[in-house]
Design the sequence.
């Protein structure tokens, strides 16, 4: 079955599944809501801290904004991960093997869709947040580097969680991976590259690099993509084993 046919066949089904699940509906809207919160909440927070505690928060704007490169793919990774858990529990994934839609085509669709959505939303949410500005090319580069985190998180949930309850627990546990770039930001220097083994390091690092106008953005983007693809491959092997138990 062609990829376009897969999107036509499964797209409406996914829309219905998300539409009838209140939690998933809210999660889909979160990236835009988060961007609006930063746009209007950040100046207020800076002013309040300056007035009440004489603490200047504005130097940390780049660090705070860089988390949009993690939040958007993480949200859609969770959505797709929970859909994978539902379909695995219902036996839908195994049943695909006797239909015209192969399991591989299904997974390309299921994991490719959040990549496309993440790239599009990065082009929208970063300008919407309004704290820092990038060219369209820079926004696109950030979107491409951040996007693989969505299927990576989805496969992670599918590979290690038995149900949605465990999925929530694993999502909370994986929060430490999203805190790691915060430590890297404050460490700085050569030592921060040690965090490069973590897939969540690279989108914020690229954001910091572009914000500072430093060179090497393409190199960081390529290495970041390579690291994330390696993690996707390793988790994909684990997911395949779990699926065929």
Sequence:
């Amino acid at each position: 079955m062609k990829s376009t046919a897969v999107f036509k066949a499964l797209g409406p089904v996914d829309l219905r599944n998300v539409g009838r699940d209140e939690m998933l509906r809210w999660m889909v809207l979160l990236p835009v809501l988060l961007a609006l919160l930063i746009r209007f909440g950040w100046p207020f927070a800076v002013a309040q801290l300056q007035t009440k505690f004489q603490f200047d928060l504005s130097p940390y704007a780049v660090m705070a904004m860089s988390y949009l490169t993690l939040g958007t793919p993480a949200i859609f990774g969770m959505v797709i991960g929970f859909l994978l858990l539902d379909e695995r529990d219902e036996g839908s994934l195994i049943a695909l093997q006797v239909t015209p839609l192969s399991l591989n085509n299904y997974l390309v669709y299921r994991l490719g869709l959040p990549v496309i959505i993440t790239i599009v939303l990065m082009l929208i949410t970063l300008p919407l947040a309004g704290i820092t500005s990038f060219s369209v090319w820079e926004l696109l580069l950030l979107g491409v580097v951040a996007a693989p985190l969505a299927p990576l998180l989805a496969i992670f949930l599918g590979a290690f969680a038995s149900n949605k309850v465990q999925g929530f627990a694993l999502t909370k546990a994986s929060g430490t991976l999203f805190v790691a770039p915060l430590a890297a930001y404050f460490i700085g220097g050569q030592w921060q590259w040690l965090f490069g083994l973590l897939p969540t390091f690279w989108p914020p690092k690229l954001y910091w690099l572009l914000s500072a106008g430093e060179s090497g953005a393409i190199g960081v983007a390529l290495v970041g993509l390579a690291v994330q693809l390696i993690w996707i491959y390793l988790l994909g092997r684990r997911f395949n084993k779990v699926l065929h138990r």
Observations:
- DSSP finds twelve helices and no strands in the chain.
- The chain has one domain: 3-243.
